[in-house]
Amino acid sequence: MTGDGMAWVPPGRFAMGSEDFYPEERPVHAVEVGGFWIDRDPVTVREFRRFVKATSYVTVAERPLDPAQYPDADPNLLVPGSLVFRPTRGPVDLRDYRSWWNYVPDACWHSPEGPGTDTYTRGRHPVTHIAHEDAAAYAAWAGKALPTEAEWERAARGGIERATYAWGDEPAPGGRPAANTWQGEFPWQNTLEDGYAGTSPVGSFPPNGYGLHDVCGNVWEWTADWFTSDHDDPAPSPCCGPERAPGEIPRRVIKGGSHLCAPSYCLRYRPAARQGEAIDTSTSHIGFRCVDRTAAAA
Ligand SMILES: [Ca+2]
Q1: What are the two backbone dihedrals, phi and then psi, of residue 104, each rounded to the nearest 5 degrees?
Q2: What φ, ψ does residue 46 adopt, rounded to 5°?
Q3: CA 33 – CA 48 distance, rounded (Å)
Q4: How far is the CA of 217 from the centre of ligand 1 (A)?
Q5: Distance 123 CA to ligand 1 centre (A)
Q6: In angstroms, what is the span from residue 85 Cα to ligand 1's centroid?
Q7: What is residue 248's predicted lDDT score, i.e. its pLDDT?
Q8: 6-9 and 36-39 as β-strands: parallel, antiparallel, unpaired?
């Protein structure tokens, strides 16, 4: 399986994090990572369909919700579904994400905008509406694993130390967008300089130094790590799970930003950027890729 669509990331030390953007990325610190293989592209709709056909797997977004688990939720929203982005008609208060995120019943990986939508022309797009356990189930089936945050960030940096982006420090080298992000005023005016309003076929933008596509933009990608508010905050042991307030859904780290990242709102299409995502949440802009730590170097 390795070598086929995967790239080798050599063992080594790298500077993880950034001091220049958001507090959760601080401090920059040296991390040692063993060598591993990683998918060159995010897992696509076509690949995920193969997994579902082989296993009859049902994603979290397709399952009924247990009211006992969501005591504060509106019962009308306790139906299978997922969060779908919809642009607003004009400028809105950027602190209220409910203006552009909509819980859409029956939205899922094969109906990304809800009933009546499909993925027939999006086989090579990254799969979306994937909760953490969906990504982990696919990885196990494929004989792989989800990357740790450090593995993901080292792979995304492509061997360029301390650069802002996966390709260097310039936002758009040669005046051309280097990733599928959001150009214009989020969340209402998308000027589409990169050619894509939503997800884009994997590999539509140049690879980084390790041969990886779409590490910046397109879709956020799940990692195996629990989220902490910064790199000084020790991550809880994976066996114990994260510390959290009662009733709060634990969060894992997602990386890479998405087609919804606009510099004016969320400059997170960078290797150091990170967010905590509730493990049961799926959206139209989160996918994943896998690693293989077991196979030998090429
Ligand atoms: Ca775009």
Answers
A1: -110, 115
A2: -60, -45
A3: 28
A4: 8
A5: 18
A6: 13
A7: 81
A8: antiparallel
